[in-house]
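Changelog note: in this version the structure field was regenerated for every chain. One regenerated record is shown below for reference.
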Amino acid sequence: MMVVKEDVFDFSDFDFSGFVQGDLYKNAMSAASSRFDYWAYCEEFSKVADLAKSSSGTGHKEAFCILADLCGMMLYPELKQNPFKPMLVLPKGRSMLPEDLSEQQVSFLGGLIDAVDDVFVKARLGELLWLVEKPKNRKRALTAIDSYLQMPLSSEAWFGVKECWVRAIVLSKSLRDFDRVNLVRDRLFDVLLADDVHDAGFLVGIARLLRVNALGSDRTAEVAAKLESLVSEVGGEEIKRDVLEEAAEWFALGGASEQMVDCLIKIAESYENDAENCICCGANIVASGLFDMALKKYKSIPSKKRVGRGVDDKIRLIRIRRQELGEDIVDEMKEIRHSIDVTEFVSKIRVAVSSRDVFVALLMFASGNQFPGVDKARNQAIHLLNKYPVAWLFSSCRYSSDGRLLDVSPCFEPFGSNDGVIERATVENFKIYVNFHSQAFIYPALMVLRNEHWLSVGDFECLARESPIVPFGRERMWAIGLHAGYEGDFVVALHVLVPQIENMVRVHLKAAGVSTSIIDPENLESEKGLGALVQSPEAVKVFGVDLLFELKYLLCSRLYKNIRNEMAHGLFVYEDCYSPEALYCWWLAFRLMFVTWWNGLAMERQKELVESMVKGGRESDC
């Protein structure tokens, strides 16, 4: 429901007891409580609101509508001050936020909270009243925390209640109520270390929650041993790697570096084995991504811990193995690109992305209407030069928004080489593509994705952690930047992602044996900038000519936006962060991360997702 500016009912004489004892309320609770998430409550309250009679004078319909709106708010548990975001954002409005509540509605919620028993409803009311009541009432926050603590801790409920347990920790810490922080910690540890719980994914989630919130530093050995014991009980390689990954973190937290290295080696070997199996099935591009992940894990092992374990030899052999895949990978990529027709995707983007599995929607978002390539852009430029030479007979000047002369482009010489003019025309074609792609493809697709799929920083971090192009240790930074852009904050997104893209280029060039630093006459060593890195001949072999073209002219060339350098010198203003080029830069970072993750998926999972794309005769949409 969209925001309503005025009250439609006077709640001053509302019968709270009669409301919660009524059949409609009980039916809604019965249907929603078994689904363990607030979206279920939003749906059920909306249904019974339609059944309630607004003309009876009881106000039940209006009460159900308010509850539906409140339960529809999206909880961002890590945010201390403003943890709620709207469920729906449209060009002409959005769904409700806490600040939209009127004084009378706040008073109504204050009366209702003492009448309800359901922990989901009580927690939401307590949280909202803590945010909006003036002056603040600490009792409301404690009610929310205590309600969160009563939410079920089971593998069936974990997906829906995980964010609530995170919120209980964050809210308790913000109140400096360390007794409740310890209570949360003890509840989580009781479940994590119990002998009768064996769901690996559930236990890894609890362990990660404890670790990220620094609640288990005194029990690292117990948790690591528990996780390590789960490895033999799980069947799939992917969940086994998740368990080993978390176990490695806990071993590192406890100073058990040898056991941490053992876990990392097992993870890398698992990726290697999956890669070899993919090669046997003819899935060379998937194998390449898995080999990249194995390399990433091996290289995360400290140098002094590699001795005696053959890690450096394994790294060398994997690189040789990847090189052997060479032409097969290129051929496979060509076949995939040919099989997914994106020519009509732009005009049908909203239909194509909507009502999809989240991974399918993200895949279509990442792969649709990609840059056609440098060769095509250059050939088009030459064609335009030959067909309309008058347009290029004069040199042109490019100025910044504050009047600085940034570039002077050469004019067309009928009998000259005209390399500079061809470059200028090629970049102009790229500009047209970026503007069109950003406004006709990225923006409408992003709006659909945001309205249909709620993604957290943790979701992006999971993808980044499994993406071989994201350097080890930088997964959280990539996740923060990508999530900020997903939520529409491109100021944060650009300022986080642009330095991380430069670091990514540097890390992968170093891995290929390229020197990324310079030594001055005084033997002081400094890193090369992105502009110098993308110009190195070896960069073409590592990243390909098309990606280098995008990075160069988008981030570090005076011929175009020059985002990296403008940002580094403090010349990138607020409006620039919401330009088509900024939106494209964020999308490019997402594309790099997501496509490399996709390429590393097992063939069976790729097949499942691709089949869901074509289900229902909608394959032409993409």
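Spot check on this record: The two ends are 30 Å apart (CA to CA). The chain is about 65% helix and 5% strand.
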